[in-house]
Amino acid sequence: MAEILVHNLCKEFGDFVAVQSSSFKVEDGEFFMILGPSGCGKTTTLRMIAGLELPTSGEIYIDGDEVGQMPASRRDIAFVFQLYALYPHMNVRRNISYPLLSQGMRRAQVQEKVAEVARILGIQDILESPVSALSGGDRQRVALGRAIVRNPKCFLMDEPLGALDAEFRAHMSEELRALHNRMGATTVYVTHDQLEAMQMGDKIVVMNHGIIEQFGVPQDIYDKPASMFVADFIGSPPMNFLRFRANVEAGATAVPYRQHRLGMPALHEPLEGDVVYGVRPEHISLSDSADYRGEIMASEYLGTTQIITLNTENGEVKARISSSQPARVGETVGLEFNGATVTLFDNQSGRALRSELNEGVLSSG
Ligand code: ATP
Q: What's the topology of domain 4-223?
């Protein structure tokens, strides 16, 4: 078990800055996600925690000890890769035993540990099978078994489910999370899949271009995005952005836009200038009385809900409404925004403006 603290971590490759002043804390026993698009610096961050890459500057503490320059072998960490190299000529038992035998542990104790790990992972019946005969999922379980059996301080996982097909991936992610709930070992998990991060993580750090955009619990990341990048990257379909020039006083709960008044949480400071009004598709409803109107361009049926795409005076807007609600393509309808859930962003910086909605989230991020 371990607490990991990353402080002002930077990594440069020549002139290229892969990770810039990253700071976050992984609490003991937490399942912690590093989420972001390809090339944003997730793997580089993980490799620095593991000791496979040295930081250019900044510190990494594991249980209070600074380990930034310490060799990987002394950090007591298990690293699980996407395509974990198992020994194909050995059976499952030998693969799992190997790390312990190479440490010089007595055979009887090794057998005990392997039995315990096999029970945790539910792979007792394949212990004598050659790994070459196993399915992808069982191989992944054996790979996890090899990591768990060493009883490391923490687990670092780099897209461990990335090679699996969608259905099996969902199954394995549930299994991994259940395993974590039983073992409670600190886990840092890298993914570019926002759904996986939301479903599995206790906390998420969202990265973009080597910079941390936001750090927090999944619900805050979704409900109170700190930037337009986060609002767009998380959620499917992503948040809608309406852009216009505003001039409102601190504390106002609506922003005038042409002949409309659009609801919003009270802002902490007066606002004058170009803003972006961010509203999630599920926070838009159709209302005959609403004067903000849009023409339905398309409707996508998703079972209990449907996504409708509308053309409005402010561009394209997507709304998630009940499938039972009639929505005909070509029809012009009124749109009502749930103002309490709206995030306003500064158009230039893309950062959220401080309001009643995101109080605490922005200051702690
Ligand atoms: P992916 O999911 O595609 O691996 P990532 O977020 O994990 O993305 P990193 O692997 O951390 O991204 O890479 C961040 C950036 O640093 C990328 O632009 C990558 O090309 C660059 N990079 C990584 N390792 C090196 C290296 N050894 N030398 C030069 N550039 C590197």
A: Rossmann fold (3.40.50)
